[in-house]
Design brief:
This protein has twelve helices and twelve strands. By secondary structure, it is α/β, with parallel strands linked by helices. It has one domain (2-104, 171-307): Luciferase-like domain (TIM Barrel), CATH 3.20.20.30. The strands form two sheets. An eight-stranded parallel β-barrel has the order 1-2-3-5-8-9-10-12, surrounded by nine helices. A two-stranded antiparallel ribbon has the order 6-7.
Amino acid sequence: MDLRVFTEPQQGATYDTLLSVARATEEAGFSGFFRSDHLLKMGDTDGLPGPTDAWVTLAALGRETDGIALGTLVTSATFRYPGMLAISVAQADQMSGGRIELGIGAGWYEAEHTAYGIPFPPLAQRFERLEEQLAIITGMWDTPEGGTFEFTGRHYEIVNSPALPRPVRRPPVIIGGTGPVKTPRLAAHYGNEYNLPFPGIEEIPAGIERVRQACRDIDRDPDDLTYSVALVACCGEDEAEVAHRAARIGRQVDELRTNGVCGTPDEVVARIRHLESMGLERLYLQILDLSDLDHLAHIGNRVIPEVAS
């Protein structure tokens, strides 16, 4: 199982905090550092000092880390025009030496849109925009050097674009979500990876199968995609340390054992192997206490050597 770290900076994190976590992620042996792309806090936190832009952050981290993958889970298609997003992602990929991955979704958090003056269309239109963005972004990246790209859709039109700048290599596209129809179809058409965000454990096999069937429906090999899940992490050497870490993030140990990846290293390894048996190949561990770098080191020392693929 490939393990990555996933953070939620809108809950309160500076760039310096994220840099510390990214470096600790790399030192611990995780394969990637990913972050949400949100503009407003959620739940009982002050969210200070305020949001950090996902692609500004990732571009900077690309210059200050060496080998880990960097990306979003997930950028909202409502936040940026597709041409500008293609430029931002390509430049960040250049700055990192080819380590950027684009997670993208339709967007769902209306309050952050109204808080920052961003239009929030109805759900059906958000999915239409997402599909057109995927066609444009991947189309630009697939345009041969010296060629041009054009696209005419309901929401976007691209005319005589040079499709520049070029990324170092075509960034993998991650499609995340739990929708039963549209999300699997988009993953099959455009995705390199399908991510299930915080599902009930018993829901995972059905979610994977929906995407595999969507691939078969278009004669794509379902094994072309990587199948991943994002779950909250809470690992401690003993029960007292597990309880302490759970309390620090305002969660109950029993609930985390049911819905997340929680417990002693042996318990966490067993959970990961169970997830792997369901057909998952990659696990994003959501780290909610960004000040607890020892948590990352502990997982790196006691879990990753047991489960790393």
